[in-house]
Each structure stands twice: as C-alpha cells, then as structure tokens.
Amino acid sequence: MGLTGLEIFKQLPKKNCKECGQPTCLAFAMQLAAGKASLDACPYVSDAAREALDAASAPPVALVKIGAGEKAFQIGNETVLFRHDKRFEHPTGIAIQVSDTEDVKAKVEKINKLVFDRVGQVHEVNMVAVANDSGDAAKFADAVKTAQDNTAYPLLLISGDAGAMEKALEIAGANKPVVYAADANNYEAMVALAKKYEAPLVVKGSDLNNLADLVEKVVALGYKNLILDSGARELSKVVADQTQIRRQALKLFRPFGYPTIAFANNDDPIMESMYASTYVAKYAGIVVMNSAEPQHILPVITLRLNVYTDPQKPIAVESKIYELLNPGPDAPVLVTTNFSLSYFCVAGDTEASRVPAYIIPVDTDGISVLTAWAAGKFTPETIADTVKKLGILEKVNHNSIIIPGGVAVLSGKTAELLGCEVIVGPRESAGIPSFFKQRWLNK
Amino acid sequence: MAVTIAKERWTSKVAEMTLGPKGLKVGGESTLPFLHFEGEMPNRPVTALEVFDMEPQDWPDILKEPFADVLNDPVAWAKKVVEYGADMVALRLMSAHPDWKDASADEVAKTAKAVAEAIDVPLIVLGCGVEEKDGQILPVVAEALEGKKCLIGCATADNYKSITAAVNGYGHSVIASSPLDINLCKQLNILITEMGLPLDRIAFDPLVGALGYGIEYAYSIMERARMGALTGDKMLATPIVCFVGMEAWKAKEAKDPDVPEWGPQADRAILWETTTATTFAIAGGTIFILRHPESMKRFNAFIDEAMKPNAY
Q1: Is A236 in contact with B2 (Cβ distance < 8 A)?
Q2: Which chain B residues are closer than 8 Å to A300 by Cβ?
Q3: Using alpha carbons only, how large is chain A's radius of gyration in Å?
Q4: Which chain B residue lies closest to A278 (C-alpha atoms)?
Q5: Whole-number pLDDT of residue A98
Q6: What does the alpha-carbon distance between residue A135 and residue B104 come to, in Å, rounded to a whole number?
Q7: What is the pLDDT of residues B249-263, one digit of tens each?
Q8: Terminal-to-terminal C-alpha distance of chain B
C-alpha cells in the first residue's frame, strides 16, 4: 500500500528471469504496485526485501478468513471511512450468541432459520457464537459439539479460559472457528492454540492503548491472523473506538490493521438490533447479538445489504413480471427500468395505492429512467422487446401499458411497435396513487 | 503503547436553527455525528410525530392504534403527540390534496392556527405534496402562523419562491426538498438564500428512502453534506430533515401484519421505523419526522446513549 512501482523495483533482484510471468522485474513491480500480482511469484527476492515489501504492501485492514466449507466468509481489506469514497468491501458477519447454560440445540435450530429472501437473493446470518457462561470446560465443549453438529455456520468460541478453549478446539478446531479472546492474562496460551489450529484470534484490550500493546505482543509471538476488540460496550464508546481503529488503520498504524468485532448484546432486543445496525454501518467486521428472532435480525441484515452495496455500481433488479397485490387480467401494467431504486419506488407507491398491478422493469443495466433514456437503453425498441418477451399483454385483457411521464416522448413509437395503447403515467412514482385514481380506475 | 488519537480539525460547523415559542435549538454541530471526542454536538437530534388534518387513509392498524380516538381531530391529535413526548408536532395538510378534499388555503390555515395555539412545542407544517398546490396554500398558512417560528415545507425547485417569501416575511424557517442529489440540495439552498432567507432558517430534505428501499443513497448524501458543512461549504451547512415515518410505513416489512418468516409485526414495524431513523442519525440527520410513538421512544433511548461523552 502506498509504494510506487519504482520504489518496489529497487527492492527486487533485477534478474529479469521472467519466472514470475512478467517480461521484466520493472513490469512485475508495476503489477505489484497495482495490487495485481503477489510477491510470492518471485523466486529470488531476498528475505530482507520481502519483509520490507510485505510490510509496505499489506492492506490497511488485513483480510481474515472465517470458518471452513460453504459458509466460510471473509472480513477486512477495507480501504475507506465512508462508502461514498469507494465502497465497503466485506459485509459485516452477523453472529448470534448461544450460552452453554441453555438448550444449545434449540437455539441453533432457530439461528439456522434466519435466512431471508430479498428480490430473489438469499441473505442470512453468518456465525453461531458459543459462550462459556458456565465457566465449566466440559460443558463448554459439549455446547460447542452440539452447535457444530447442528449448523453449517462457522463458530465463534467465547471463553477466557485457555483450558476450556483447548477442549473446544479439539472438537471444532478443524473448521477454523474464531477464538475469543486473547487478553493481557492469557494471550500466550491463546496464541499457541490459535496457531495450532490456524484459527482467527480476537485480541481484546481494555481500551485502545491496551489493545495496541497487546496486538504488538501477539504479533511478536508470530501470529497475525487477528480480529480486534477494544473492550468498549457502550454505544457512544463503541462508535468512537470503531472510528478510531478504522482511521488509524487507514493511516497505516499497524497494530490496528485488522478487522474488528463489536458486541451489540442487550437484554432489550430492540436496543440490541439498533446497536447492531449501527455497528454494521460503523466498521465492525463481526457483530454479535443474542436474539435469534427474525423481527430483530431482518432489519440488521437489510441495513447490511444496503450499506455494503457498491455506490459506483447501480443495483439492478431482474427483468421479469412483478405481480403486486395479486393482480388479475384487468390490472394495469407499469413499465419502468431495472434500476433497483426505480423499481422500489414504483412498487412502493403502487402498493400504497392499493391498486393491484404488474410491474415490468426493462433491463437498462440498472440505470434510472431518464439516464437510460438519454443513454439509448430505455427506448421504444427495448420496451417493446421486454413486453413481448415477458408476454405480459397475454396476461391482461386491456391491451395497454403505462410508461413513466418523463419519457412521454416514447409513447407513439412504442404503441406502433406493440400494437397496444401506451398510456403516459406520472413523472414521479409518488404520483402513481393519484394517477390510478384519476386515470385508471375511471377508465 | 500510547495511541495518538486521530482527530480531524474541522474548520466550520452546521448552522443552528431556533424554532417555536420556547426557542428549541437544532443543528450547530462541529463534528461528525456522535464523535464527541473531536467536536461539539450542542443539540441532540430532535423528533416530531406526524398529525394529519384528516383521517389517514393508508395507515396500518398498528399505526392508528396509539391515536385511535383523535384521528379525526388534529388539535387533540397534536396534544396527544406532545403527551407522547415529541419535541415537535408535524402537521401534514393532507386535506388540501386534490385527490382528497382539495381543501382551500384558508381552510387549512385555520386548522394550522388552531393546532399551533393548542401546543407549546414548535410546529412543523407540511403541505399535501402536490407542488403547485403547496405553493398556493403554504404562504397563507405562514401568514396565519405569524410569530410562531414554525418550520414550513416542503419547498421544491418548482414552488420555492412563493413559500420562501412568506416564510421569510412571517418569521418562520423552511424545509428545502430536492430528490436524492447533493448538488440539487445545494442549488436549492443557494436559490433560497438568494431570496434573502438566512441560512440558519433553512433545513434540507434529501428525499430519504426507508431501510431496504434505497436508504443508502440518502445515507451517503448526508455523510457527504456533513463533510461539506464541516470543511466550510456553507450551502450544505444546514440541518437535515428526515421524513422517516412516511417512508418506513410504506415498507411491507412495517405494514404487513402476517409474514411468519419475518416474525411478529409489533417489533418488526417499530424496528423498521427506528432503524431507518438511527441510520440517518449516524449519517448526520437532525430533525426526525416519525409516525409511531413507540418508535420515537426507542429512537430517543438510542440517542440518549449516543450522546454520552466519548472523549479519550
């Protein structure tokens, strides 16, 4: 990070051996600077150079892999404080906590059901956190075994007792659970365990200074597969610490160059859900909650989906027939673009009108009505193709479609191509309820 | 190892607006939301609950229930909103909408005056949403409310002239509304200040979307506007109005009483409204116009926590 191609080139062996796949060392250096090649491709780089380059080329926030198998996921590699500066890279992992003093199987089965479908995509929680509240190593090991036997999600093992952690890892270690946590008292033992299983290790400080200290000690022991917990639990302190850790990481303060974990756990599930949503937006790599009830989890998952979208890439919905409020053959057909916000506005305002309707988003590569029109992607031809392909006019008895008011100019040609009536709707979706009232229901 | 706390040296701050008979202050922050360790948030984010001047047609039962006995009486409804602890009352003049009663400017102004007389918190008056009609009725409303220091809106690029002139003349503040584009927000603020209304009497509305329905667009606009305000862009340095209730209660997740896989409606609906609100609060929102009293209570509990000091 931050090194230019020439600065990297100075550290390379300059043999031009081509074994890295690049024609020259300089070309390889340029690829490294662009983040498109790994230093591992060079067989002759000296250890000293490797150390210098590794340290300098490491991302501001390390990438950490959690779990094994199909539910494994990654956190970290973040590069900005604000999503509008580029994007947030790896969505926060949502962990639901179960205690080794409760019915682990029952709760894990509930957690497994926290899977939601949204416009054709599946969104779910990511981890089961098992807490050693009993203080009993055998009970903890039992709980970890029950959890592992009943879920495919990676585990987060919560115990300050290295002995209990060792037993739990004998059961679950092969699946790369997160080990929580190394603190000032137990870090040597916890690092040894995490190393043995190559499992991500949370380093828990009592404040930022203490956290930085502890990370340096852990790194000195040769372990860098880390996640940070500043120890803060109060909302305003967590927001401050999360902001500090991200800011420091981006300034390349190395002890804070790892993803974070935040605990939203609260006896009041509404409070917990609001906290968790805040931590999703404010930089947490993992957020931990107690509630396994869908009404408390769905808002958090939805916010994660929203905040982690790429602001530079319009989000598209699938171009298909959307049926709102069980439309029949006499229901209106609204045409819009497949920019998700266009679709959601039209769908939301149509539902508000309580008039059953069909919505047909034309595939405009996810750009909005007027932009797509200007770009030649929302045209009589694309509208006619979509209407024909989806066969919507065969489903209705009125042989008409409604197009957005902003592209009224397209109505004549579209009508000609389709041989149907093309009605010009309102310019803004907010006008749909009154449009239906005045123009459709009186038809 | 001592960590050197990273503090931004902001050079400017958000304008501070004063509303209502008792001078409620909003805005004025000199740091990003809740980063008390590097600047001031002299005023906490404030709430208003909506009151309609006619019975709402599309509210789900769960939302009507807390106001069941007052839905036809805006004055009694407004008093109830104050009882529930709202910082402000937001009166929406729905009856003026051509689709509903197409009420005249004089009729709605009478209602607005009666509501303002009945409460001692600041009044926000919102038009019916039809720009042309609002451009006609809001100046008359502004006149009827002279001296009450209300917040009146929404002024848009198409109707701001008549509204701004009346707001300025009768001592109120205005909500400037523009669709999801930071440059349009800024442009409208400029046009309004060019008419002589001072910046500390403008709040802007970026037309927010609810959780799950484009919330990220307004979220990023607010973050960008706050960065702009703190680094000296005066034309972005106004409080931000978030129409959370109106948007959140359009969402299926709030309205639908019976979707087993989403869990019971009560907590889900309240969380849809509060999560939309708290998300804008951490992005820089200032004035939160909500609908359900329980959401407001939860939101305030969240703000209590977020306002706690976090200096290092």
Answers
A1: no
A2: 275
A3: 27
A4: B279
A5: 98
A6: 71
A7: 989 899 999 999 999
A8: 15
Task: Give the minimum alpha-carbon distance from B247 to chain A in angstroms, rounded to a whole number.
Answer: 9
Q: Got the DSSP string for A61-109?
A: S--EEE-SSTT-EEE-----SSGGGS---SPPEEEEEEETTS-HHHHHH
Q: Has residue B298 got a pLDDT over 60?
A: yes
Residues in A touching B282 (Cβ below 8 Å): 239, 278, 281-282
Q: Do A84 and B220 touch (CB under 8 A)?
A: yes
CA distances from residue B174 to A251, A298, B130, B142, B202 in whole angstroms, order as listed: 41, 36, 17, 10, 5
| Residue A431: per-residue pLDDT | 87
Would you say B71 and B64 are in contact if contact means Cβ atoms under 8 Å apart? yes
Nearest to B239 by CA among B190, B173, B292, B302: B173
Tokens found for residue A45:
């780089």
**ipTM for the assembly:** 0.97
What is the rounded CA–CA span in Å between residue A231 and residue A224?
Answer: 19
Strands (DSSP E) found in chain B:
16-19, 24-27, 46-52, 88-92, 123-126, 151-155, 173-177, 202-205, 241-242, 287-290
B105, B140 contact by CB (below 8 A)? yes
Is B245 a residue whose pLDDT tops 90? Answer: yes
Q: Which of B129, B223, B268 sits opposite A82 (nearest CB)?
A: B223
Residue type, B312: Y
Interchain pair A344, B98: CB under 8 A:
no
Looking up tokens 């197009």 gives A403
Give pLDDT tens digits for B21-43: 999 999 999 999 999 999 999 99
Cβ-defined contact of A299 to B275 (cutoff 8 Å): yes
Q: Which of B222, B279, B308 to mutate to test the interface with A (most CBs of A within 10 A)?
A: B279
What is the least distance, in Å, from the CA of A354 to any CA of chain B?
A: 9
- In A, which residues are within 8 Å of B99 by CB distance? 433-434, 437-438
> What chain A residue is nearest to B268 in terms of C-alpha separation?
A295
Q: How far apart are CA B59 and CA B55, in angstroms?
A: 9
A236:B307 CB<8 A: yes
Residue A8: burial class (beta carbons within 10 Å; 0-12, 13-18, 19+)? buried
Q: What is the pTM of this model?
A: 0.88
Q: How many residues does chain B have?
A: 312
Give the three-class secondary structure for B54: coil
Q: Among A213, A236, A306, select the one facing B308 at the smallest CB separation.
A: A236
- Sequence-distant contacts of A406-413: CB under 8 A, at least 24 apart: A406/A369, A406/A370, A406/A373, A407/A369, A407/A370, A407/A373, A407/A378, A410/A373, A410/A378, A410/A379, A410/A380, A410/A383, A413/A380
User: A287 has which bridge partners?
Assistant: A94, A262
Name the token pair of B136: 């006609």
Q: Which tokens sit at A377?
A: 């992607």
Helix (H, G, I), strand (E, B) or coil at A317: coil
Q: Which residues of chain A have pLDDT under 70?
A: 1-2, 35, 55-57, 443
CA dist A101 and A143 (Å) reads: 8
A-to-B residue pairs, Cβ atoms closer than 8 angstroms: 165
Structure tokens at A39: 């230093």
Query: Cα distance from A44 to chain B (closest Cα, Å)?
Result: 37
CB–CB of A194/A165 below 8 Å?
no
The minimal CB distance from A270 to the residues B34, B270, B307 is found for B270
For residue A352, the model assigns a pLDDT of 83
- Give the per-residue pLDDT at A1: 45
Q: Which residues of A touch B37 (CB under 8 A)?
A: 240
Q: Do B1 and A354 touch (CB under 8 A)?
A: no
Nearest to A380 by CA among A402, A405, A412, A357: A412
What is the pLDDT, as a whole number, of residue A57? 67
Contact A240/B36, CB-based, under 8 Å? yes
The structure tokens listed for B84 are 């529930």
